[in-house]
Amino acid sequence: MDKRLSLSKNIAAVSRACRFFLYNIRRIRPFLTTYSTQLLVQAMVLYLDYCNSLLAGLPASTIRPLQLIQNAAARLVYNLPRHSHVTPLLTTLHWLPVIARIKFKTLVLAYQVVKGSAPTYLLKILKPYTPARPLCSATSGRLAPPPLRTCASRSRLLMVLAPRWWNDLPVEVRTAETLVTFETEDSPLQGAPLPVVRFCNLGT
After folding, report:
1. Which of 121, 126, 174, 202 could be 113's S-S partner, Cβ–Cβ 3.0 to 4.6 Å?
2. Intra-chain end-to-end CA distance of the chain, in Å
3. At 150, phi and psi to the nearest 5?
4. What is the pTM of this model?
C-alpha cells in the first residue's frame, strides 16, 4: 500500500496474479466447453471482488487494470479475440463492471448498517439517520452524513461514500425488508438486471 492510499500496488499485484490465472486457462481452453471455462473464470472474478469496497472512490484510471482483467476473462469464456467488444459479453455473463461491483459491495455494507446486522466496527462509523423531530424521513432508511465538511483527502472514506451512495438510492430499495430482497431489486447501478446483482454479491 502506498502512502497516498491509492492501493495501486495492491491492484498491480492482483492484476499480475489474475493474468497468470487466465494464461493457464487459455492454454487448456481448446479442451474446455464454454460452460466449464466460465466456471473456472468465475473463481477469478470472485478474487477480484475480495475486499473490493476498499477501492471505493478511486479514479477510474486506477481501477482500469482490474477492468482490463475482467474484460479479458469475458473474452476467454467465449474464446473471442482480444479486441472484441466486451459490453455484451459482460451482460450475458451477468457481471457488473468492476467499478459498479465496488459500489454494490459498499451498498450491501450500508444495508447491513441500517438493519443493525453489520460488524461492530462499521456500526461505530456509520449511523442510521435520526432527525431531531419525528418526521417521515425517520422511516426512509437513510444514513447520517459525516458531521464535518470533508476535505479532498478524506473523500474516499467509507463514512463519506457509503452515506452519499446509500441516500441516493430510491426509498423502496433502502427500506427492503431483507438482504435477499435488497439484492434482488433491480439494481440502481447502471440499470443492471436482477441476475447481474445476484452474481455480483457472490463476492460479498
Report:
1. 126
2. 22
3. -95, 130
4. 0.79
What is the sign of the dihedral through the CA atoms of 150, 154, 158 and 161?
A: positive
Residue 154 CA to residue 152 CA, distance in Å, equals 5
pLDDT digit string, tens, across residues 132-143: 666 555 557 899
The grid coordinates listed for 99 are 467499478
Identify the CA nearest to 21 among candidates 1, 49, 48: 48
Share of the chain above pLDDT 70, in %: 79
Is 29 a member of any domain?
yes
Q: Which of 93, 119, 147 is the last residue of a domain?
A: 93
Q: Does one domain contain both 53 and 109?
A: no
The whole domain housing 78 covers 8-93
Flag whether 1 is in a domain.
no
For the record, the C-alpha cell of 122 comes out as: 462499521
- Total domains in the chain come to 2
Q: Is 186 left (phi over 0), alpha (psi -120 to 50) or beta?
A: beta
- Regarding whether 54 and 72 lie in a shared domain, the answer is yes
Q: In the chain, how long is the greatest CA-to-CA distance?
A: 66
Amino acid at 31: F
Q: What b-and-e string marks burial along 22-59, b requiring 16 or more CB atoms within 10 Å of the CB?
A: beebeeebeebeeeebbebbbebbeebbeebbbbbbbe
